[in-house]
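Operator note (shift B, R.M.): manual run for YceD family protein requested after the automated queue skipped it. Running by hand, logging everything below so the morning shift can see what happened. Input copied straight from the record, untouched. If output looks odd, do not overwrite the archive copy; leave it for review.
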Amino acid sequence: MKLFIQKLKQSQGEPVLFQEKVDISDLTDLENDIRRIDPVQVEGTARMDGEDIACDFQIKGTMILPCARTLVDVPYNFVVHAIESFTTTSYHQEEEVHLVNGEVLDLTPFIKENVLLEMPIRVFADQNKLDANTLTEGNGWTLVTEQEQSEKVDPRLEKLKSLLDDNSNEDNSKE
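Run finished. Output pasted below as returned.
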């Protein structure tokens, strides 16, 4: 997404509106969990004041991330609000102000950066998708829920349980 410096200068300090769909699908090539990302909708304003440019924009989109439990695809909708500061002069020495070289301001790297910063650490699929994709047994193992575990008697205590059952039967027969 490119903004032309000349157009910003001609606006004489008035905000210039922009709205565009931006393809940032190359984020999937990086070593992150993004499996797919559709083109994002970017809209906002850019204002030039002397040599400084302030861009206030919002990024909306959907990315596909793996479920933290089952690794199935989970669509994650996001909205990111960003404010970026730029300058056309190299005399500006602040960390948060980016230098613009040339006559075009390319917002695409800043859009990608803001999307990556807002990416969640983990996402979970809805319960139906989890149930459909959860393995319950494999080679030499079986999934046991907490409820099944509490109902199951420890094999080491099985004989004790039968002994207690026998004693309670004897008590009942004496009455």
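Quick read of the result: Residues 18 and 28 are 26 Å apart (CA to CA). The radius of gyration is 30 Å.
Leaving this for review. - R.M.
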